[in-house]
Design brief:
alpha+beta
């Protein structure tokens, strides 16, 4: 089951990818004057739209920082855009997207076209909100199914090995559990069991373990089997 931190990280990645898609598509705007006039134009247009624009004052004692909060529903989702001028007179722009209590900070310098960027973000804002909710619901559902599958795998394995002589332990991860069985001759058998397909492999698992055990016990040469390394230079005849 995903931790709360992992869930938040996946949701932030969702917002980040959306922002990056737009960022890559916009044109460069290296003129500060054009950028500021473009932002002014955007704010004027928003006054006659369904968006609400408020002056935004970050909780920093910095007279060189100013910005705006743009929202449709201040209790759910909004975008903060603010500017900061440092000692070298460089202007940096930061966007903070807040969706249902989750913040994502996106910071760039003013080589971007702020008007173009924000126009595209705001035009897709409602679509983002719907996709974000759907994404969150799918993630929660998948997490619950994974948790059920993980518990089922653990219970099944312990029941299967309850009366056996095997020494084993089980590692549980996000998408799979790994059964580690101690064999003779210092060997160990590691079997990954993926939650999405565990029902297909479980019936054959006892026979599979027995075959590997017989192979190890009857083989006079110690053999280690591992995953193939794609970076290795293989000799091909």
């Amino acid at each position: 089951m995903l931790s709360e931190y992992e869930k938040k990280q996946k949701k932030r990645d969702f917002i980040r990818e959306k922002m990056e898609e737009i960022w890559k598509s916009i044109s460069a705007c290296r003129s500060l004057q054009n950028n500021v006039s473009g932002l002014t134009k955007l704010l004027t247009e928003l006054e006659n739209s369904t968006f609400i624009v408020n002056n935004y004052e970050p909780h920093l004692k910095n007279t060189n920082t100013y910005g705006y909060r743009i929202s449709k529903n201040s209790d759910e989702c909004w975008i903060d855009v603010f500017f900061n001028q440092n000692k070298d007179t460089q202007i940096e722009v930061a966007f903070v997207v807040n969706m249902f209590g989750l913040e994502y900070r996106y910071r760039k310098n003013l080589e971007c076209d702020v008007y173009d960027f924000l126009s595209q973000v705001l035009s897709q804002f409602d679509e983002w909100k719907a996709e974000y909710q759907s994404f969150s619901e799918r993630m929660e559902k998948s997490d619950k199914l994974n948790d059920i599958s993980k518990n089922s795998v653990t219970v099944w394995l312990r029941e299967m090995l309850k009366n056996s002589s095997y020494i084993y332990y089980i590692d549980e991860a996000e998408n799979k559990s790994t059964l580690h069985i101690q064999l003779k001759k210092g060997m160990q058998l590691d079997i990954p069991i993926y939650y999405k397909s565990f029902q297909k492999i479980m019936p054959d698992l006892p026979d599979t373990i027995q075959k590997y055990e017989d192979f190890v016990n009857n083989c006079g040469i110690k053999v280690l089997i591992s995953n193939s390394n794609p970076k290795q230079e293989w000799n091909i005849n």
